[in-house]
Design a protein that fits this description.
alpha/beta; 6 strands; binds farnesyl diphosphate; 253 residues; globular
Length: 253
Amino acid sequence: MPHVPKISMSYKEQIISDRMPRHIAIIMDGNGRWAKQHGLKRMFGHREGVRTVHEITTAAAEMGIDYLTLYAFSTENWNRPKEEVDALMALLVETIRQETPTLMQNNVKLTTIGDLSRLPEVTRTKFEQCLQQTAANTGLTMVLALSYSSRWEITDAMTRIANDVQNGKMKAEEVSEQVVSDYLTTKSVPDPDLLIRTSGEYRISNFLLWQLAYTELYFTDCLWPDFTVEEFYKAIVDYQHRERRFGKTSEQV
Ligand code: FPP
């Protein structure tokens, strides 16, 4: 049944605390279009996008969400003009440097997924430092997808499974869904309950294809720099009014 929000209540007030998604994944799209709308260069959009990352991460930590996965840089993003790629890499380093104290204050643990070997040395080193610094934090786990694509991840997992079968570490008939999940970069993270994509695009764009099998999808026209905490709450309220059947009937769940 479609959810009809009560106009007098804010979305935050409508959140049901015992029905929180454990893991929210976000495709942060629309930075470039936001910049264009404001007559600015694309990098200004990415800078505004960082402000949104700060606000949404803080809100997720406050709400007690366990995992927040952000698609920060895809494998395909390497094909953007060199100037934009270099500027994004510099922005990532600057953001991590600036945000680490906030992550510590909010008890946020940073982790990454993706082919980090492709990142410039300085970017990788900065991330590794931040991963170590926040490793003992016990609140929200923030998973940054960097140089990530799902087809890369699945191909990499298949190659390692094939090697392990060939080397006798495992039998082919022992390859189960659980084994495949354990070879993915997300092995220690539960599958997302909710995926949010901003900017009015209705695509998954090579993001967590295996892990999204039963995830609830939420699309909004908001460009990522315009995505407010209230919009975030709205997505969570929408999620909380869906029936997750996991292939069963309504009566069974
Ligand atoms: C998509 O917008 C966004 C990106 C490719 C980069 C996202 C990066 C950030 C928000 C900044 C860094 C983030 C962190 C976590 C530190 P787009 O450029 O594809 O926008 P467009 O589709 O409107 O052109």
